[in-house]
Amino acid sequence: MNYSSLTYILLLPAIVLGYYALPARWRNAALLAVSLALYLLWWPAGIMVMAWVTMASYLGTRRITQQVDGSTGMLWFTIALTALPLIFFKYLQPLNDTITSWLHIEWFLNRHRWLIPVGLSFYTLQAIALVVDVYKKRIPSASSLVNHALFISFFPITSSGPIVRGGELLSQLEDRQRRFDPDLAWQGIRWLIWGMFMKVVVADSFALFVQAVEQRIDTQNGFTLFLSVLSYTIQLYADFAGYSLMALGTSALLGVRLKHNFWHPLFAVGIRDFWRRWHISLSTWLRDYIYIPLGGSRCSAWRTRLNVMATFIFSGLWHGAGLAYLLWGAMHGLWVVVERLVRFDRWPRHWVLRLPLGLMTFVFVAVLFMLFSHDTSTALHILGRIASGWDGFHLTVTQSVSTLSREWTMVTMFALMLAKEARDEWCPTLLSLHSLQVVFYACVVIVTLMFGVFDRSGSFIYMHF
Amino acid sequence: MRKFIYSILILLVAVIVGDWAMGRWLRHIYEHTHCDEIGRLNYISDSVTADIVVLGSSRALHHYVPSTITDSTGLSCYNCGFENEGIVFHYALLRQLQQRYRPRLVVYELTYDYDIQYLSWRPANLKHIHAMGELQCRDSILHSVDPWERVKMLSRIYPYNSMAFAALASREPTTYDSAFVDNGYIPQFKHMQLDPDWQFHPQKWDDQIDTLKVSYLKKMITENAGHLLIVVSPRYLSPEDNIYGMVQQLCNEHGVPFVCMVSDPVISRDISLWEDDGHLNHTGALMFTRAIVPHIKKVLTENNKQ
User: Fold this and answer.
1) A308-331 b/e with 16+ CB inside 10 Å = b?
2) Quick one: which of A191, B66, B158, B238 has the most CB atoms within 10 Å?
3) Domain annotation covers residue B110
4) For residue range A369-404, what is the model confidence (pLDDT) as tens digits?
């Protein structure tokens, strides 16, 4: 179910009220039933894959808890079983297609087109993290299959994360004394409203502009294409961060406190800083389960650089199996290596320097995100047109009053989003009076009704990864 | 807990009051817009009384010259074509017109992708239907497209969603209001230019049918039989196409004339008549209108006999 849909908005209060009306011992089971039912609405067959990941990680963690010698065999076996569907759905099929097209052969796998189950990339990493954490005795395994299954299928985060850890979510689900927390619930409502604004107003407005430009790439000048490239990154950010906020908000209403997945990445200065702010749950996952086990930075300088590259290439391949994703990860890794070499973190952070460096970071990130939305050859074609056919600072998309008003909406709503983010980043106490907050969020609802894209609102982009 | 409940209540009240106030303001500026698309829609809804009305997407808007039709038939004509709009919108617009008066003839320009084909990225555009406050069947049309529309329409703002800037910007005349506009028809004066390495690729239509669009096409045909002419105007270098067979059959069943000129041997092959491969320029539009007038006259004569 799309979390920005009216169905979900109307269903959510019923779920929350029903949840708190139940006796504490039934709540997790009820939440599991709701989570599975909502997942079934997305793609019924996907539930089998989720069941596989749940059972493999549950039985694995139970077995790991029981073993006394601490051998790694069971750990690797469990990780392999848990990751098997992800490897099959995400990597085996593209690999099969590539090899069979090279060899010009046809066999039964070519006849089937397997769709990647919604959220598989997210809940698989979540399950693997749990298995490792249980093995390292950072947390105990789940006390029951219901709690473990709920940890994997917890509906606010199933489709696009954040990728939560056992210590963060499972420990809260195990707590039977969880009660309605009014402060957390109010925070949750604010996150829901702002997340909806980011998705339906900002992301979907930018999506309309990007679509309009990309329908006819060859007729656009370089300036328009450049704006479209930047717009896609803003769309991606508002879409994914909006979803993440709605996930946090829904969890908060259910009494579960989750960590932020984004922290104003548009203000990042440098790629390392960007990755501290963008998809934080994935960055920290990669740090804790790939980078540090590889040796992290506690080894030779060259080995550290290699570890950075390996981590970012893994990140690229997690997003998708293809040369474009590999390239995307490698370029980010390379830039981080360069930043480490020039000790970028120690450069002065005066705003005079911060502004151009921040803009450069944004442009670099945006250019690489083109590899998400286009195949490599199209991305290079667009870059070529930006470089060769700039043709002044005017837009070449059709300019009617309706498209102009759409562009106005895009710019003003982006400015509003940026203003709030600047306030949260640099002066979080400004206008923090509770009554002012209530009025502000009421205004956000009104603005969402006025400018939201309701008829063409698409699914969340990260659901496709 | 008390603070939480108060916060929620204040939030709800503020949203309801804000929705009511902003909704009223948006309605006011929408209804008092006289320029561009919104002004044109207001004019069609409130003032058009022409004997012949032309409906359809941009191909209707730029292909039918009302003055030529009036000169040949002696009847007034208004071009109600609307950019990027399909059958659901035009059905609603016709119903809105028919609440005021009944045109003697409706010419509907059929566009396959807007009126028949299923396009996931181009759902029925409800934006302008939301704002048709006087349309009696508005709710049932909206409900047939999306059952949740009834709930959404409880908001006063929602009918004018994403129109605030457009309504505010439509204070100054645009191409819709220029001196060249002839009873709704907007002429185009450019000539199509082909790159030296241009090659003709006939448009391949997907045969996946949108049942919602087809149901509205059926409604338009059945409810307006005897007063309706369905036309497919030419496309540049379009081959003979059998994709309109279903429409032909539907029209035959209800005695509605159907004229398919998509691959007209003269117009569709003369590049000087085209603005782009889907739209005629003014010269092309004049030529096409003269070609369609005999069909219009024929329908009018048959109507008179009845």
Assistant:
1) bbbbbbbbbbbbbbbebbbbbbeb
2) A191
3) yes
4) 988 888 888 888 888 888 887 777 788 777 677 778
Q: Please list the ranges in chain A whose pLDDT falls under 70.
A: 1, 107-114, 399, 455-459, 464-465
- Asked whether residue A175 falls in the same domain as residue A248, the answer is no
Q: Could you say which residues from 156 to 185 on chain A have a Cβ atom under 8 Å away from some Cβ of chain B?
A: 182-183, 185
How far apart CA A285 and CA A268 sit, in angstroms, is 20
Q: Are residues A147 and A256 in the same domain?
A: no
Is residue A399 within 8 Å of A262, Cβ to Cβ?
no
pLDDT of residue A275: 95
Can you tell me the ipTM of this complex? 0.85
**d(C-alpha A32, C-alpha A154), whole Å:** 7
B226-275: pLDDT as tens digits: 899 999 999 988 877 678 888 999 999 999 999 999 888 899 889 999 99
- Top mean pLDDT of A172-181, B11-20, B147-156 is at B11-20
Per-residue pLDDT at B198 exceeds 70: no
Whether A436 contacts chain B with CB within 8 A? no
What's the pLDDT at B199? Answer: 65
**Beta-strand pair B279-280/B274-276:** antiparallel
Residues of A with a known catalytic role: 319
Three-state DSSP state, A2: coil
Residue B123 has pLDDT above 60, yes or no: no
pLDDT, residue B293, reads: 96
Of B18, B148, B162, the CB nearest to A6: B148
The answer to whether B97 touches B45, Cβ cutoff 8 Å, is: yes
Phi, psi of A9 (to 5 degrees): -60, -40
**A342 and B CB contact within 8 Å:** no
User: Which among B26, B161, B169 has the least Cβ separation from residue A401?
Assistant: B169
- Asked if A245 and A162 count as a contact pair (C-beta separation under 8 A), the reply is no
- Report the number of distinct structural domains present in chain A: 2
Asked if B188 is an interface residue toward chain A (Cβ–Cβ < 8 A), one would say no
pTM: 0.88
- Name the strand (E) or helix (H) holding A38: helix A24-42
For residues B217 and B94, the answer to whether their CB atoms sit within 8 Å is: no
Mean pLDDT value of segment B148-172:
86
Q: Would you call B180 an interface residue with chain A, using a CB distance cutoff of 8 Å?
A: no
Q: What whole-number distance in Å separates Cα of residue B31 and Cα of residue A171?
A: 57
The reply to whether B276 falls in a domain is: yes
Tell me, yes or no, whether A37 and A153 share the same domain: yes
Tell me the H-state helices in A301-375: 301-319, 323-341, 351-373
- B118 pLDDT band, cuts 50/70/90, is confident
Contacts of A454 in chain B (CB under 8 A): 152, 158, 161
The boundaries of the domain holding residue A221 are: 197-269+349-464
- Structurally, chain B folds into a number of domains equal to 1
Confidence label for B306 from pLDDT (cuts 50, 70 and 90): low
As a whole number of angstroms, the distance between CA A206 and CA A316 comes to: 24
Judge: A456–B1 Cβ closer than 8 Å, yes or no. no
User: Does any domain span residue B282?
Assistant: yes
Strand partners, B56: B109
Which of B9, B11, B149, B176 is best to mutate for the A interface (most A CBs within 10 A)?
A: B11
Q: How many CB atoms lie within 10 A of CB B112?
A: 18
| Whole-number pLDDT of residue B207 | 67
What tens digit of pLDDT does each residue of A235-267 get? 999 999 999 999 999 999 999 999 999 999 999
A211 reaches B (C-beta below 8 A): yes
* pLDDT tens profile A432-452: 888 899 999 999 999 999 999
Q: Which of A149, A179, A209 is the last residue of a domain?
A: A179
Cβ distance B78 to B56 under 8 Å?
no
Q: Given the structure tokens 């400018």, which residue do they identify?
A: A451
From chain A, pick out residues whose CB is under 8 angstroms from the CB of B86. Answer: none
